[in-house]
């Protein structure tokens, strides 16, 4: 599973990244979490409000910092 | 109710004398702090529930290929309900122009979204009353509509960074949350926002209370009264760097108005604080070339200055 955290480097994006890493560790699933900060890659997904979470190439949500529990439900 | 609580705390519990400078300053501080936080918590929550129905992706679809005038008005209105954070300004801008939202319409949105925001409105309503808050919304929308129309007429598309036009923009699925998710979102949003702004609000109200209690009345009338022609432009120039502290600036401005600052100057100052900011300019320079960025700031600053003079003349 590949998880991408989209964000241009703001504080909220960092929080979402941390939540995601913790959620993956808690769930025990084998997933790679990467940060995507360049604009063309973010735009490729059609995301207009950051931070956003992309799981296996599909936008799970955008424009919010989801809680660890919420992210675990998406994995 | 609130007044009694503030009176009880300052005069009965702490034993300060009503009418004394320290007593009045503290009473003012307690009253305003409690009132503002009650308003902030309830209204931000309601606004967040409404906002969760208007993700930017939906706003973009509503504005795509709209003509000028109608598009500008719609964009300014949608700016109120669409959540906007200056850190998302770049993807938002690219998403808009790529999907065929005209440049001028995009700017109407970019002006209105940060300026007509709920925190500024609540602070205005709580401290100045609903009439001033309504005037602020009305003129804020007008500034956004006019600035967007002017930028549209200037045909400045070539001053958008070239890569923007070549960008491949994907189509994200539009997910509208259910009611339960909306409430969750609103709770998170309200808590997050309060956590971010509370120190500014407390410091702002504290400084306001100090001015209220210790600065002589009419102290500012000489410098910032309606007779001083330079007050409005100076207020606008001072407002631009103060962006992130909008929540803290309004209580201070409220106290300054009591000491003789004219209402038009107050409105212009607050619009400059919320609509224009240096960090936003830095972020937008990623998508706008200098002439367009300067035109954008220039037009909005001029429009706000006119608003200031206008209200100094009629209020």
Describe this structure in words.
The complex is a heterodimer of chains A (75) and B (315). By secondary structure, chain A is of the alpha+beta class. Chain A has a single domain, classed as Glutaredoxin, CATH 3.40.30.10. Chain A has three helices and four strands; from the N terminus they run E-H-E-H-E-E-H. Chain A has helices at residues 11-27, 39-44, 68-74, and strands spanning 2-6, 32-36, 52-55, 58-62. Chain A has a four-stranded mixed sheet, with helices on one face. In chain A, helix 1 (11-27) crosses helix 3. The longest helix of chain A has 17 residues, at 11-27. Chain A is globular and about 30 Å long. The model of chain A has no long low-confidence stretch (mean pLDDT 88). By secondary structure, chain B is mostly helical. Chain B has one domain (2-314). The longest helix of chain B is centred in the middle third of the chain and has 36 residues, at 179-214. Chain B is globular, with a radius of gyration of 21 Å. The two termini of chain B are 31 Å apart. Chains A and B meet through helix 2 and strand 4 of A and helix 3, helix 5 and helix 10 of B.
Secondary structure: elements and pairs:
The complex is a heterodimer of chains A (75) and B (315).
Chain A: E1 2-6, H1 11-27, E2 32-36, H2 39-44, E3 52-55, E4 58-62, H3 68-74
Parallel strand pairs in A: 1-2
Antiparallel strand pairs in A: 1-3, 3-4
Helix pairs in contact in A: 1-3
Chain B: H1 2-13, H2 21-51, H3 56-63, H4 70-81, H5 89-98, H6 103-115, H7 118-128, H8 130-153, H9 162-166, H10 179-214, H11 221-224, H12 231-239, H13 246-258, H14 263-275, H15 278-284, H16 290-314
Helix pairs in contact in B: 1-2, 2-7, 2-10, 4-6, 4-8, 6-8, 6-14, 7-8, 7-13, 8-16, 10-13, 12-14, 12-16, 13-14, 14-16
């Amino acid at each position: 599973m590949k998880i991408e955290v989209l964000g241009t480097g703001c504080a909220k994006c960092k929080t979402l990244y941390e939540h995601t890493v913790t959620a993956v560790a808690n769930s025990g699933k084998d997933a790679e979490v990467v940060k995507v900060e360049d604009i063309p890659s973010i735009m490729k997904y059609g995301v207009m409000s950051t931070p956003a979470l992309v799981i296996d190439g599909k936008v799970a949500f955008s424009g919010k910092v989801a809680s660890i529990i919420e992210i675990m439900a998406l994995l | 109710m609130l007044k009694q609580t503030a009176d009880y705390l300052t005069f009965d519990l702490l034993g300060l004398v009503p009418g004394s400078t320290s007593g009045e300053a503290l009473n003012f501080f307690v009253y305003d702090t409690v009132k503002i936080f009650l308003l902030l918590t309830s209204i931000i929550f309601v606004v967040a529930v409404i906002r969760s129905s208007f993700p930017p992706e939906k706003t973009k679809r509503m504005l795509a290929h709209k003509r000028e005038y109608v598009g500008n008005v719609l964009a300014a209105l949608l700016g109120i309900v669409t959540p906007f954070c200056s850190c998302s300004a770049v993807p938002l801008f690219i998403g808009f122009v790529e999907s065929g939202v005209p440049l001028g319409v995009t700017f109407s949105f970019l002006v209105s979204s940060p300026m007509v925001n709920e925190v500024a409105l609540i602070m205005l309503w709580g401290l100045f009353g609903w009439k001033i808050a309504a005037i602020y919304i009305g003129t804020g929308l007008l500034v956004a509509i006019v600035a967007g129309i002017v930028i549209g007429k200037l045909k400045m598309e070539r001053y958008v960074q070239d890569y923007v036009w070549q960008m491949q923009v994907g189509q994200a699925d539009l997910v509208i949350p259910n009611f339960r998710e909306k409430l969750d979102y609103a709770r998170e949003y309200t808590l997050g926002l309060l956590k971010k702004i509370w120190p500014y609000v407390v410091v702002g109200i504290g400084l306001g209370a100090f001015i209220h209690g210790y600065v002589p009345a009419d102290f500012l009338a000489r410098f910032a009264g309606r007779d001083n022609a330079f007050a409005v432009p100076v207020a606008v120039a001072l407002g631009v760097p103060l962006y992130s502290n909008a929540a803290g600036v309004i209580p201070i401005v409220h106290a300054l108005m009591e000491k003789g600052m004219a209402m038009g100057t107050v409105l212009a100052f607050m619009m400059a604080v919320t609509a224009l900011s240096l960090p936003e300019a830095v972020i937008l320079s990623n998508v706008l070339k200098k002439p367009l960025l300067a035109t954008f700031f220039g037009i909005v600053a001029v429009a706000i200055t006119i608003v200031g003079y206008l209200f100094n003349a009629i209020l």
